[in-house]
User: Fold these one by one.
Assistant:
Number 1:
Amino acid sequence: MGKGDSSGVVVKPATAVPPKGKIRRFPWRLWLWALLMTGAAGAGGYFTWHFREQANEAVDARATATKLAADAEASVGTCKKELDTASKAAATCTTERGALEKASKTLGEQLKTNKDQLTELAKVLEQNKAQLASAAQFKTQFAKMVDSGAIEVTNRHGNIVLSLPAQVLFPSGVAELSDDGKIKVHEIGFTLKDKGPKDDKGNYTARYLVVGHSDNQPLRSSSYKDNWELSTARALTVTRELVAAGMNPKNLLPSGAGEHDPLGSNSSVKDMSRNRRIEIVLMPAISELPDPKEKK
């Protein structure tokens, strides 16, 4: 703005005139610096945007990875549960298999036992058939004596037995046969001596047990100590008479049972009469006896 003088006239300042011959240069440095700053700002903005995108992608990737890890962990938990269930099922199957194997083994043993029992029963049945046949044969051979009541053919303790009442053979309290008793014993001996299987030499091998029995009444006037001694003496007398009738003494075995193997209770006269007897027992052959090895 111009300054006023004392007269009120505004006087403009004189304009400075550059000196002649000096030219002003273009400001390259300033422009270069401006360009650099502009480029740096653009690069900074670009990298800021680029890294922000990468950061966002990283965040998204992390979220995805976290979700996948959670899903994987849940899947692992499910697999563990399924594995536990499968393990329990396998253990149950193993237990059931063991039980089935044990039951199968037990059933097999039972079947084998039943088979063995059936085999034994078949043998016993055959033996019983053979004994019944022998008993029928004995009854036929001694038909007259059976019909007259002199003897009785029975099956006792699994053996064929010829039973003779003691009162038919012996007077009371003695071991000597009566005359009628000798005739009956001789008749039995004549019948038995040529019966039964033979060995290689043609000898009969059927063996007989001659057993004396008594009632339980004490002896009163007798030379024998007790019924046991009397029954043994009577069995020995019958055995000797059978030998005299032609039987092989090797096939005869006398013994006495006294009152210890009764047929009745000794509570009546009839029972005591039945208990006083001589029994001739057909003993089984060795081949008919069960093999001890088969019992194992």
Number 2:
Amino acid sequence: MIGCVAENRSASLTDMIIAGNPADRHRGRVEGDSRTWDHHGMPPLRVLLVDDHEVVRQGLASLLRSTDDIVVAGEAGSVREAIEEADRIGPDVVVMDVRLVDGSGIEATREIRAKRPQTQVIMLTSFADDEALFASIMAGASGYVLKQVRSGELIRAIRAVGQGHSLLDPLVTKSVLDRLRKGKLLMKDEKLARLSPQEERILSLVADGKTNKEIGQELHLAEKTVKNYVSSILSKLEVARRAEAAAYLARHNRTPGD
């Protein structure tokens, strides 16, 4: 799904996190606001690293120090810290873990992009998840990469988004646009982004006031199956009753043309 081109580097990101970067022993890069200049005469990209595992942040920082055009301007381990650090240092690019100790990196991305639209965000995750990908796009992320990515590919990805490019595969973008054109939920809210397409349909019918039996008849499902779907919806939205789910949808649902 990622539109970046692999460089000729053999080490994976995981390798770098475990072993560290030998290049660090030969570099004296000053981070933060003390900015060097690359050989093209351009200031380096200032990157904020967000992950709730310190060893991962250290590995990422070690990798990025091997470059001449990227500097680690700050680190954060939670949603709150990510938003505060982004406000403080104004990074060009944020490398954001999807899952953080106090919430979702998607939430942090939405807040950061709302305050600083010029800051680009790359979501970093351990596993592929279509729903998280969709929610990340809607939150304003420019890319979505796996932690298993080769180290050179991550560097290329940071450079690409720092120059204003998207890493999203055209097929992914088309899928999102198709979903919007069909009037499905515009998932600006992370909890709604957890729902499957079938759960979206059922929640819409719940919001219309239909009973489980009526929903089953309309969607050709057994009433018990609908009940199970509704239970799953309530759990994902973190509410207790159908009325609360309907109200939640009303507050957060947006469709094209609204």
Number 3:
Amino acid sequence: MRRTGKDRIGLTLCYGPPDNTGITDIFIGEVELESIAGSDGRIHEGDQILQVCISTDAKLTHRRCLGKCQKASRV
């Protein structure tokens, strides 16, 4: 969990090619060891993002996912 807004979640996201509606699959490309996600240990390179901030959308647009991840307070 973030203690301050400056704490880094520490994830590099990778996106599959968007379909004809702009929806894309989102995967973890890298986890920074000295970050919240790295310290937590539950998220690994290659994991697929299925839910962000209680959104039940299995697929999000690149822009919407990035915005939700930047605002997230928990991993």
